[in-house]
Amino acid sequence: MQTNLDANAKALSDAEEAESILRSCVHCGFCNATCPTYQLLGNELDGPRGRIYLIKQLLEGEPVTEKTQLHLDRCLTCRNCETTCPSGVTYHRLLDIGRAELERRVERPVRERLTRKGLRTVIPRPAVFDALLRTGRAVRPLLPASVQKKIPARAAVPAKARPAPRHARRVLMLEGCVQPSLSPNTNAAAARVLDRLGISVTAVSEAGCCGATDFHLNAQDAGLHRARRNIDVWWPAIEAGAEAIVQTASGCGAFVKEYGHLLRKDPFYAAKAARVSFLARDLVEVLADEPLDALQFADDAVASRVAFHCPCTLQHAQKLGGTVESVLKRLGFDLSAVPDAHLCCGSAGTYSITQPDIARKLRDNKMDALESGQPEVIATANIGCQMHLDGAGKTRVWHWIELVDSAINEASAASDNGFRMTPAPRKMPL
């Protein structure tokens, strides 16, 4: 694609990257075939190809309006188009660049600015989020119906005890922002399963939000500030030999794996960010490399039928589609087929709040697909997807590691003979 960036665009720190991405697009339109918003709305400007043209016009100095912003806002950043694209267009990076520039040129209505500021204030702060969640649950019947829908109706399973660190192999774990309140047992279950595989989780309580919420709400500097802070608090443990930084939420994992790219021009953090991104691993990547027969399931401990929703951040961003399904099958779970498994559920970080109508339609379609195989439970790998899907009030949705942990507990409640084999850790860069 021919480009002619204007002087303002050429002055951007990411101008060269934006121009390279634009030129890599051949306008074939394959991306529209797998774009959830294009499928729903049928508008060329609500598909990747159209949005690329909008960003091209923006960077070439053409007039832009609130309509331009609307079409870019409607993008889920599911990155399904990247999986489909034969030219390898890194669309999400162009979208980040375009959205940030558009934010500077088009002022949002007051209501939108307040909503986004509120999300950025609440979501990355676990204590604030937890306090508001508790308050919301207490007064739920008194709230408007639109607000009630945002408060989970089903009670969270309390976190069970975590094992004390006792193994030579150690990993860090990103606790997350909303997950400790919405699904507190998820990380505890991950720590217990890892312990049985001879891997201990080292707690680093100072680590906070990964930065994705700020970054994807166009407060990119704030998002990178959070990334730098996490690098600083993780670094002593990394130097002490932690072999991985594990994420149980695939959305966080996708963003942490981008630290190296996003901070590549930072003279103080570039090398450390690259190391952190190298060490970042989704939980399933860790389990997939382990001898899972050590987990000792009883024949009747495994749920007979599970439908797995693979989050976009797992299959399209991290390229780990099918990995959780493979692990669950190795462990004896019976997985039902899920039609159109590549499509987004509509959660997409804060998208279900900023674009509720589209998000609800995508959720309903996804739940129909997941329930088509009549599963007993639905599992996923990202807290946003989990709560969004569970909010439909149909089949209960869990994080997949909780199903694994529950099966282990049923099979060996009175035993603690965790597997002690210690395979060689992943080779790390100098």
Structure description:
This protein is an alpha/beta fold. Helix 2 (15-24) packs across helix 7, helix 5 (66-73) packs antiparallel against helix 7 and helix 12 (185-196) crosses helix 24 (400-411). The protein is globular and about 65 Å long. The chain starts with 6 loop residues before the first helix and ends in a 19-residue tail after the last helix. The protein has 24 helices and 7 strands. The strands form 2 sheets. Strands 2-1-3-4 form a 4-stranded parallel β-sheet. Strands 5-6-7 form a 3-stranded parallel β-sheet.
Would you kindly provide a brief summary of this structure?
The protein has 430 residues and is of the alpha/beta class. It has helices spanning 7-10, 15-24, 36-41, 48-59, 66-73, 80-84, 91-105, 110-122, 126-138, 145-148, 179-182, 185-196, 212-216, 220-239, 250-256, 259-262, 270-279, 283-288, 312-317, 323-330, 351-354, 356-371, 383-390, 400-411; strands at residues 169-174, 199-202, 245-247, 280-282, 306-308, 377-380, 397-399.
**Largest sheet entry:** 4 strands, parallel
Number of strands: 7
Indicate the CATH class of the domain at 7-105. Mainly Alpha
Going across the major beta sheet, what is the strand order?
2-1-3-4
The count of helical stretches stands at: 24
